[in-house]
Write a structure and sequence with these properties.
327 residues, mainly alpha, 2 strands, MetI-like fold, two-stranded antiparallel sheet
Length: 327
């Protein structure tokens, strides 16, 4: 009876597909739960304890989370994300600018693409050491500025002066990641139907109108992806301050401080609460980014995006202006 029932069940193609899917997914799901979700759950548990890796654990409730925002060193490290967030905006703007130019026929365009993408292929640790010597007093940057006529005595200590050191460190991320974002933008722009450009040219649209009305709405998915990566990367910046300054002179970002709390000071509970706060911040930033994308790129009930509505308003304004002059 049971054997007949099993045969009837397995005779259905849909049930066979489910069995195959479960069979192939079983081991990956077990590994995912064992090495991802279980450690994540343990991290949340540890965030409520005052503990080291080895030794006594004391339940402290929300004290670790309060410390994240009440301790000056931790909260200041969180504020440093503003520098990297600003750098990510500059990085995306430059990447989109160069991608728009290099997506069309440009002399030596292939060489320019390779040169701009090359920094992304270099290890982050190697880039840290490169810029460590680049910004060191009397080395590359100072030598270039002195050659341009400036005196070294009037130049700041790029890695010690707290008025400029975080700006310098954030600028390294622009140099490294701009090429990656540019390549992603180029791939998206080249997938746009060329007939749209021809139709826009016939209508008399200039380069800016073609970019705002055709290119930007067509690559909104890639723009959203790069925004998510840039925002999450700016909040969790680690390699530049860790390798170049080791977090000294006010350059310790949130991730650097979290690493210090966990591995140097052995405050595992506090580091775990910092990780949870970081995760929440990234989720909130992602939701905010999605809201921005929805406002600017999603179509309204008339099937028009924000850029298309803006272009339509400009055309109406121009027509109204011309009409007023002719009358």
């Amino acid at each position: 009876m049971g054997e007949t029932f099993r045969k009837k069940i397995m005779a259905k193609p849909q049930n066979q597909k489910v069995l195959v899917a479960v069979t192939f997914l079983f081991i990956p799901l077990v590994l995912l739960g064992l090495f991802t979700y279980l450690p994540f759950a343990k991290m949340i548990q540890f965030s409520f304890y005052d503990m080291r890796y080895i030794g006594k654990r004391t339940f402290v409730g929300l004290d670790n989370y309060i410390s994240v925002f009440s301790r000056e060193d931790l909260f200041n490290s969180l504020k440093l994300s503003i520098y990297y967030l600003g750098a990510s905006i500059v990085q995306l703007g430059l990447a989109l600018f160069f991608a728009t130019i290099l997506s069309f026929k440009t002399k030596l365009g292939g060489i320019f693409k390779g040169v701009m993408f090359f920094p992304y292929l270099v290890s982050g640790i190697a880039i840290g050491f490169i810029f460590k010597f680049f910004f060191t007093r009397g080395f590359v940057l100072d030598s270039l500025l002195v050659a341009l006529g400036l005196t070294q005595e009037n130049l700041p200590y790029w890695l010690r002066d707290q008025s400029v050191n975080n700006v310098m460190l954030a600028a390294t991320s622009v140099w490294r990641y701009m090429g990656q974002n540019m390549v992603l933008f180029i791939g998206a722009i080249m997938s746009v139907d060329p007939d749209l450009y021809e139709a826009a040219a016939i209508d008399g649209s200039n380069a800016w109108n073609r970019f705002w009305s055709i290119i930007l709405p067509s690559i909104k998915t890639i723009v959203a992806l790069n925004l998510i990566l840039s925002i999450s990367g700016s909040i969790s910046a680690f390699e530049p301050p860790y390798v170049i300054t080791n977090g000294t002179f006010g350059t310790g970002t949130y991730f650097v401080m979290m690493n210090s709390m966990a591995h140097e000071k052995q405050k595992v509970g506090l580091a775990a609460s910092m990780a949870v706060v970081l995760m929440v911040l990234i989720i909130l930033a992602t939701l905010f980014q999605k809201l921005i994308v929805k406002i600017f790129f999603e179509e309204d009930k008339n099937g028009m995006t924000f850029s298309e509505r803006s272009a339509s308003k400009r055309r109406l304004a121009n027509k109204s202006g011309l009409g007023g002059v002719s009358s």
